[in-house]
Design a protein that fits this description.
By secondary structure, the protein is an alpha+beta fold. It contains 3 helices and 7 strands, in the order E-H-H-E-E-E-E-E-E-H. Helix content is 22%, strand content 34%. The radius of gyration is 16 Å and the shape is globular. The model has no long low-confidence stretch (mean pLDDT 93).
């Protein structure tokens, strides 16, 4: 079973620099879009889930390797999966490929920590969110801490 969620992204003019190439921070925006669409596909938009659980899921680490240039109007495929699901954080791996050729253009990971919205302190990820993330977990991704 493929434990990846994929989302298609068309590079827009606003995503590019003066050379019409994607400005590198926008790759993280593409990954964020894929993460948002994953939660939506599970019937629970992130905003509703976060409000209902009384939490935030801030990014604490981001890492990317940029392997090929992408340009205005390229069609990209963003794949995400859970590399690690710990008690208070999860690590999403990602790959972004050019849809026409399958060429890898960027890969990396992001780490989100679960934070109580009122106390502003880390807390365990609610069971409801763990259940949503579980189908994206790679083997051995779940950790005790």
């Amino acid at each position: 079973m493929d434990r990846r969620f994929t989302h298609e992204v068309r590079v827009r003019w606003r995503d590019t620099d003066t050379a019409s190439e994607v400005f590198y921070p926008n790759y993280f925006a593409f990954v964020t879009d894929a993460e948002t669409e994953f939660f939506r596909s599970r019937g629970l938009p992130q905003q509703e889930l976060i409000r209902r659980c009384g939490i935030y899921l801030p990014r604490v680490t981001v890492h990317a390797s940029f392997r090929a240039r992408t340009h205005w109007d390229d069609l990209l495929q963003v794949a995400i999966w859970v590399e690690e699901l710990a008690e208070k954080r999860y690590k999403l791996g990602f790959e972004i490929t050019r849809q026409a050729t399958g060429e890898l253009v960027s890969d990396g990971y992001i780490v989100n920590v679960c934070v109580d919205a009122e106390k502003r302190k880390s807390r365990p990820i609610p069971a409801e969110i763990r259940d949503i993330l579980q189908p994206l977990c790679r083997p051995h991704a779940v950790r005790a801490s």
